[in-house]
Amino acid sequence: MNVSRKFSDEELINSLQQERNSNDAIRFMYDHYFESLSRFVMNNQGSLQDAEDIFQELVINFIALVKLNKFRGESSIKTFLFSLNRFSWLNELKRRGRASARELSYEKGMDTVEKDFSHVALQKESTEQVYALMNELGETCKKILLMFYYEDLSMKEMLQQLNYENEQIVRNKKYKCLKQLEKMISDKPSLKQTLKNLLNG
Amino acid sequence: MDNDLHESKNNLLRYFDKEMTEPERIAFEAELKADPALGTELHDLEEARTAIMLYGIRQQVSAIHKEKTTPVKQAPVIKITSYKKIIRYSIAAAACLVLIIVGINRYTLKPSADGLYNEQYITFEPNGTRGENVEITPIQKAYTQKNYSEVINLYKAGSAATPIQMMMAGNAYLQTGNAPAAIETFKLLLSQNKASNTTAYNDDGMNYLAMAYLKNKNYNEAINLMEKINADKQNIYSNKFTDAYISSVKKLQ
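Structure tokens for the assembled complex are given below, as produced in the milestone run.
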């Protein structure tokens, strides 16, 4: 039986922030938060599929905030996720034009967690835009950039997995790929603004 | 000039990749302060790194999401011989019989109050705990730590409670099994709202009051309130108390 590892709030943050392999931490989030958060969506005009989609985006958002040190831990993770969940679902209802007057009036009374988050919250469209952009980079560039900047591998470790002669070639290739990505982002002002908000928010 | 430019770019990348020694880093940060264009280039690189990070997170989460939400695959279709068919149909008939019996029981047997309560009770989550200008109140801290007896003590000690404090106190009473006190607290919240013509946590108060009535076995009051919530399509808990759920509560009477 696959028993998932347990995490305190602090351990969860540390794992998401520092561990190369944080899969157990993400599994823990699914095991411990999905059920209660999905209930909110399903009790408010949403289907199970909606709840799953919202939760996936929520986890992506939360990990991004943690990695960028934007989650200050002033509320428990559960409280924070609950607010994010409510915020995301309300946004989705608004997008579908199904938010009732009560929900819209609730928005006016959004608490600080949600107001704070609304500046940096990524919409699904934004993450999809990033996804499409990275795919445009091509497999090699994507792999090299992910290895170095996401998986945190050293040049030596990268060389072992890539078909290049020496570390300098990998280093040069990484630089070119990074500049290419930078240029592609500059060509998409709305995405650039989203990334800027996320960094400065 | 070209060499200086090349060195500057190279240093920027080394700084960005955290490959500088401490003295190099300090010197470069001074250079960054003096050169806004260099700072802009650094921001551009940081945006690119953020895009890589988002892509990485999405890939990682997506894989786990599939693992946690993908439905069980259907078993491959196997040709059934007539002998196996008889057994299979017999099992199917027996299963149908069991389902019919379970169905009849469901409509004739009384549901349990605790079962219905647990089915719909969701722990109340107070908000407003993040942000530099927001102070976490002691009652909120105690509630977040699930120290419900402390929540109740602080609530009792306070002279005037805010709606969110009443929500936390009411839920703390529910969590500690004191449904009558929870009922009084939620009723107080609703009456104060009515008196001051405000609606803060009104829907939440109604929802938890209905749950408290159910917990306290005040079925008539619970049913009346649930029906009221269900009928009010502006209430955020309107979909929670379905006709089927209310029918189940009625069977408790």
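The longest helix of chain A spans residues 23-43. Chain A has eleven helices and no strands. Further analysis is deferred to the final report.
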